[in-house]
Amino acid sequence: LVFFCSSAYVPKTAAGHCKWAEVLKDLEQIKTSKDIDVSLYTANTDEDKECQEPVMRCFFLETEVILQECLIKNCSKTQDVFNIWKNGNASLENNKLNSTTSAKCKECEEYEEKNFTEFIQSFVKVIQKECK
């Protein structure tokens, strides 16, 4: 168990696989969706490194809002949105054991609300930064 917990923070493996790769793929699928029209709290892409986990949590929390919207409107991309939410929460759960959040990190609701397109662009940037 100790090895598993400590391995959660090891950078990419030799194979170069990022744990967010699946999420990134699904974000690419939904970013052009015309039937998703919501305003979402959008975390800054330039937050301190120590705030990365709360930033990721915020994006996945807001993905749940998109999912609810898609279920109501029967969006064409509902499955992709569900996959993002499911894969993201699974990865975040694995990190929870070691997580400590700095007091200076913002709560999700403290970020500016942005439209779906801007939200997705920021989400992709944050994940790409995580995968470097």
UniProtKB/TrEMBL annotation:
Task: Write out the entry's keywords from A to Z.
Answer: Cytokine, Disulfide bond, Secreted, Signal
Instruction: Please name the InterPro entries in this protein's record.
Output: 4_helix_cytokine-like_core (IPR009079), IL-15 (IPR020439), IL-15/IL-21_fam (IPR003443)
Question: One Gene Ontology cellular component annotation?
Answer: extracellular space
Q: Please list the GO terms describing molecular function.
A: cytokine activity; cytokine receptor binding
Gene Ontology biological process terms in this record: immune response; neutrophil activation; positive regulation of cytokine production; positive regulation of immune response; positive regulation of T cell proliferation
- Highest taxon above the source species: Eukaryota
Q: Where is this protein localized, as stated in its record?
A: Secreted
Concerning Gene3D superfamilies, the annotation shows: Interleukin-15/Interleukin-21 (1.20.1250.70)
Pfam families per the record?
IL15
Q: Return the similarity comment.
A: Belongs to the IL-15/IL-21 family.
How is this protein named in the record? Interleukin
Q: Which organism is it from?
A: Sagittarius serpentarius
Q: Which gene encodes it?
A: Il15
